[in-house]
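USER:
Class, as today's exercise, take the chain set out below, and explain how the chain folds.
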Amino acid sequence: MLDAARMMVSKEGTAGLSLRALARVVGVSHPAIYNHFSDREALLAELSTEALLELGRTQRVALSKATSVLDGIVRLATAYFRYGVSDPARLRLAFAPEFARSAGYPALRAAADAAEAPAIEAVTRAADEGLLPHRAIRERTVAQWAMVHGYTVLAIDGRLTEGRLSVAGAGFAPLVRELSRSVRLLYEPE
């Protein structure tokens, strides 16, 4: 059922997902869907939770391969960018505006924290090496995430390239290089 819902979101975005349409796709009656999800929001919360957990795992793997603090920060940015470009619908699910306040979904809040943890860890390491004051860790983490997320969304929306961008496409590598340069600038001495 979740696979079908992910496919629907991938094709039509979250606006195209309804419990009735999902029931039709998976071949069950509309009332039967409610045995699995109380409503559309609960289904979207589950999909968003999965997307955030996957993003967190992706970033943690990237950070584990770092050879230096700055390399870790660049690897995080690149992993985030690759994650978003490889499946834009999944990235949009991870940050669906319906869940800006996830108080009603503790698993979603935990997944959001897990997705943010590698960035906080990397920026904390940078502070430990004197690249920024410890008091600025939170602000730098937010600035870095905002820059990388914005860059990723602009690329997905075709604002940085002509045509559809893909991870295997010729336009991907130059964008990664520019993103890497930009992220490094956040850590240059002022």
Notes: The mean pLDDT is 90.
